Amino acid sequence: MGRLDGKVAVVTGGASGIGAGTVEAFIAEGARVVVADLQRDAGEAVAARFGDDAVFHETNVTVESDVAGAVDLAVEHFGRLDIMFNNAGIVGAVGSIAEMSEEAWDLTVGILLKGVFFGTKHAARVMIPQGSGVILSTASTAGVQGGLGPHLYTTAKHGVVGMTKSVANELGPHGIRVNAIAPGNTVTAMTASVHGSDPGEHDAVTEHITSRSLLGIASYPADIANAALYLASDEARNVTGHCLVVDAGHTSSGVVANRFNTGPQGMYREAGQVEGR
Question: Residue 192's pLDDT is what?
Fold first, then answer.
C-alpha cells in the first residue's frame, strides 16, 4: 500500500525542479497527478513518463481559468481531487526598492501569490463538498525571515505563509488541511540561474549550497518532495496551518545571508526574472 493510494493531485509547476520531483514522489506512493505547467514540452514529457497515472494541463497560474481548468481536469479525468500543490514560481523582479516598478510588482506577486490564491480557491471549490482534502503551497525561507531573497519575492512568500494560516482556519471544519513548505536553497534550474550558472548546469550551485549547509549537504527537489509527501499523506492528519521549513537549519541558526550577495551581482542587480522552480 502506497501512502497516497487512491489519491488524486494537481501539482502546479510540475514540469521541472521541485514540482517534477513531487510528481514522481506522489505517483510512487500511489497517487495519480495532473501536471500543471506553462512549459508544454517539459510538462508533457514528465506526464508521459508515468503513463495513465499522469496527465498534462497547460497552465499559466496568473490566469484563473487555467488553474480552474487544471482542477476540473483532475475531477473529469481521475474522478476527484485530494491534493492541490501550489508550487509554480519564479524568482521574479530583483533590484533596489527605490527603483522597483509597478510592472515588476505585478509580475512577481501575480505568479507567486495570485497563483496560490487561484489554486487554493478552486481546490476548495471541489474539496468542501467532498469534506476532505489537502492544500499545499510552496513558500520559502524568504517567507519566514528577511534578507534571504529579493524584496518582492520575500513579500509574496510571506503572503503565502499568511494565506496558508488564514485559510486553514476556514477550511479545517470541512476536513481540509492547509499547509506550506518553506525550502531553503535547493538545487534546481531556478537557483542555478540565480547564482549565475546555466540552468542546466548544477555543479556550481550544488557546491555553493553544500558549503553553506549546517549539515554539509545540498538540498535537492526530492528533499522538498518528501516534505510534501508527508503533509499530503494521512501521517500528517493532525497538521494544518503550518509552514514546514526544510533548510538544513539555516533559519534557526541565527545566520542571515548577506543581502548584497545572493548571486554573482547580488539581489540588487537590475530588475529581471528567472523562471522555473
Answer: 41
**Taking a C-beta distance cutoff of 8 angstroms, is the pair 95, 268 a contact?**
yes
* Catalytic, out of 153, 220, 230, 268: 153
Q: Which three cell numbers stand for residue 35?
A: 501536471
Annotated active-site residue 268? The verdict is: no
pTM (2 decimals)? 0.86
Sign, CA torsion 24/201/244/60 = negative
The enclosing domain of 199 has a CATH number of 3.40.50.720
What is the spatial distance between Cα 21 and Cα 18, in angstroms, rounded to a whole number? Answer: 5
- Rounded-to-integer distance, Cα 228 and Cα 191, Å: 20
Q: How many domains does the chain have?
A: 1
Q: Alpha-carbon distance 25 to 43, whole Å?
A: 16
The residues, any chain, with a CB within 8 Å of residue 191's CB and separated by 6 or more, are: 185, 205, 209
Read off the pLDDT of residues 62-94 as tens digits, 9 standing for 90 and up: 999 999 999 999 999 999 999 999 999 988 888
Domain containing 192: what range? 8-252
- Distance between alpha carbon 180 and the CA centroid of its chain, in Å? 9
Is 265 among the domain residues? Answer: no
